[in-house]
Amino acid sequence: MSLDTRYLEHDFDEETLGFQEPAPSKSNVQKPVLHRLGQALVLLGLVASAVLTLRPHFAAADSAPWSDWPHFLTSYGALFVGGLLLVYARYAGATPGIRNDNQVFGALTYRGFAGWMLGVLLTGIYVGLYFESEIKDAFGLRAYPLAGLIDAGNPVARLMGVGDQGKYYFLYSMLYTLSVIVFAVRMVFRYQHNRYQLLRTGSVTFFQLGIAFLLPQLLAASEKPEFYFSYFWPLSWEAMFPSKLSDLGSQGTLGQFMVGWSFAAAFLAVPILTYYFGKRWYCSWVCGCGGLAETMGDPFRQLSDKSTKAWKFERVSIYSVLVAIVLLTISMAVFPGAFSLEFKKIYFFLIMQMFAGVIGTGFYPLLGNRAWCRFGCPQAAILGILQRYFSRFRITTNGGQCMSCGNCSTYCEMGIDVRAYAQAGENVVRASCVGCGICSAVCPRGVLKLENGSTSKDRYDGAATPVDQLLKDLKEPPRPVGSNVDR
Q1: CA separation (Å) from 415 to 8, 233, 310, 439, 485?
Q2: pTM for this one?
């Protein structure tokens, strides 16, 4: 059979010859009825939340707060169930595999109007939670900005024994955890073909729900120290302050165990586990910040900046925060006076509230889901140093199979140009890599593989020692041969 010569011509016109582009799918929804029900519940939840937010500022002074179960169920309950229904309707029954359709053209997922509005909403929630007293006084409000939403969480707070003083923090933890659960279900459906993603998603959900939410609340309700076992110094920034250690040590055997845990986790578990597994064991499997980023933030991972300017800024900013918390911790131990207390207030405001909270989460739809982890987290900085020079973890590449589709670089939440490494046939051993494995999951050719080698030396060309590699990095930022990150 001979081939039609028209198909070999340089000016081959597919449309003229009858090869029109297929009409784009209007919807990828698998179950439209459930999708509409989910939309209705989410709308109900948003309206109820808006009413609850506004009511304390307009209701009569002697009116009772809205703290009954109906108000909880029509706000948080409707949002939670509606979110689950939307996820189920979108992904249940779909063919396993990564769907890239409309990802970089969607208004929500690529800084369109919907994305900006979501960013404003998330930022507003964080600002309202962090600066409630300041906003109330500045605008002369009758109640705290989110007083109605806090009251709506009272039924669950009472069930868990949370007192009035803890309602504010309970609301934050509850919303955080519910968001992780809803979007963890989305992750399970979206990456159902990838065992690594299923296990990783299950892990971060367990640590957020069980270790970072239920356990601290139950400890506080039983009049024990409220302690977060999944956060270590320096991310748990007060963990090594003498006053914190003294308070825990005075709480009997349990408090003394918590002091021991703080030291063992920060100075033993972190280096040992990072040597064997890289920073992924914490950043992608345990950490609550990473848990929210990997679940609720997954639709925005393609927004990470891949430029060299962003890379250079990352190297300065994240280690500057690490230096700041080290100096603050030393200052609190050696000079526990007015200067240290002022330093503490500045760090808490700039780093923990503005950077980690408002920017780190509120800006998901604008900067991507790992802005805090990439540019500010001091825990990630320590883990990154260990991973870069001492860990056995690496992402190996098979450049001969790479077809340059760019999926790996597009979906890298840490702004790494993974494709350049693959094309150069080099291992990915960047300090910023959190080992989320999405680059491997979206690769259509199986080019990338997450591995733990037998030693830390064979990750580099010439089996460079950590000192040799450090000196090389100080002279020039590490980049693969032929990297296009300068674009």
Answers
A1: 40, 25, 8, 11, 9
A2: 0.87
